[in-house]
Amino acid sequence: MKRNIFADKLNSLGIKWRTFFYLIIFTGIIVILLWLSQVVFFDDIYKNIRITEIKDCADKIERAIGENDEASAVDDAANDTDICVVVLEIFNNEVDSNIDFNGKSTNRYTLNTVYSYHTENYCVIHSIDKVSYTELYSGAINNGGSQLQRFKVNEKRRQYFGIEGNFFDRDYSENNSTKVDTENLPESIIYTRVTENISGNTIMILLNATISPMGSTIRTLNRMLIVITAILIAFAMLLATVISWRVSKPLRKLTTSANRLAGGDYTTEFSGTGYKEVKQLSDALNYAQTELSKVDSLRRELIANISHDLRTPLTMISGYSEVMRDIPGENTPENVQVIIDETKRLTDLVNDVLDISQIESGVGKIEKNEFLLTNALKNVLSRFKKLCEKDKYVINFICDGDVWVYADEKRIMQALYNLIGNAINHTGADKSVTVTQQCLDGKVRISVTDTGEGIEKDQLPYIWDRYYKVDKVHKRSIIGTGLGLSIVKNIMNISGGIYGVTSELGKGSTFYIELPIFSKQTE
């Protein structure tokens, strides 16, 4: 529960304070790592690095043994790491009956010093006796060829206090009862490695290095880190403030503009600078603003169109109804037919709006089957017969034979009806429309041509959009919402057909749809 409360509080922070918060946390982590590495674990890290250097030096010396520049290579390896080096060639002789100071018998060895390099003021491997060399050799052999000895050394009293390994388990002091504080004594390391030279003789490499006490160094680092920590925190707070402000500033501007856009101000412009992502967001919001502006404009046009389109038939219905009610003898079939026609017109307007919503949302189901497209087209043309008789329109039908298709017959007839109605609404003074059915390469094309004013080329990409009208002024008794061509486009998209238009100013336009021809042989 507490974690959720913390998360909610963090999420409620703005990007400015959240950026500031994260940068402070990052700085805190850096400071903690500095303290851990430079103070808490500094002594262990230093010792591990020193041990690694000793082993690397042993590797270099082992590779250099037997080479022409052996002495130079050993010198360089020892001098670079400030390490004392003794290289011995060992020959095993008979068993000696002498007993060493531990009460153990030892083998007598012949020791031949091959190389010696002295860097320390007091070096253990240059001051021990033959028995000690023998013990170091035996320990390395028993340990698999190498062994590490760590111990504290009191140079003044010549005392050794073992830490790791078995060579300095005893105290060499003259007065063993003397209590010595070993905490501040320097630590020394002896690394022994047994190998062979190119002649097959046994070689023992002894390395000795001193690890200085880290107490004073750590105290110095503590004081330095206190100062560095204070500087880092101050700098981090300043940097976090600057970065958070610079990051949040363009976003705050975009937020202000977005709020104006949400309030209906479609003239708002978004300017995002400074960061790639902010620029991309700005471009996306500008695109959204443009599209919302278009939608708002289309909405206004739709309201104006529908208001205009609905007003006329409603006025006609209301007027004729009142006449039939108030004037005796006016209840005639002609007046009733006017009311029926205007009611049908209202129904068509409402259906157009419902159809485009259903098709675009995918609610309307497509029920495909094979049907005779030619007959369906003739049925659609028959609906316009009364209009042709009343308003003297001429619809010419050109057909090259019966054609079957596999599609939703109801939807295809709806598309054809909209195309023909659109052509009648926009044809020229001759009131002529030509409908052509033509077979082309396995497809059937239905073309509807009017003789109107035509459409400009820059307007052609938009005529299939919802509510779009090239001619904003109604010139015909057939009225539309601007949805007819959009319905055609969507029907052809879901039917797998093709739609298009060609137009020439002053000569008229040709709208067409194409569908694959269906035949029993290719079923």
Task: Kindly describe this structure.
There is one protein chain. The protein is of the alpha+beta class and 523 residues long. It is 50% helix and 21% strand. The chain has 12 helices and 13 strands. The strands form 3 sheets. The protein has a 6-stranded antiparallel beta sheet, sandwiched between helices. Strands 8-10-11-13-12 form a 5-stranded mixed beta sheet. Strand 1 and strand 2 form a beta hairpin. Helix 9 crosses helix 11. 22% of the residues are buried. About 6% of the residues have low confidence.
Biggest sheet character: 6 strands, antiparallel
Share of helical residues: 40-55%
Output the number of helix runs.
12
Topology as H/E string? HHHHEEHEEEEHHHEHHEEHEEHEE
Mean pLDDT: 76
Q: Tally the beta strands.
A: 13
* General shape: elongated
Query: What is the gyration radius calculated from CA atoms?
Result: 50 Å
> In percent terms, what proportion of residues is strand?
15-25%
Sequence of strands across the biggest β-sheet:
2-1-6-5-3-4
Class inferred from helices and paired strands: alpha+beta
| Termini gap | 65 Å
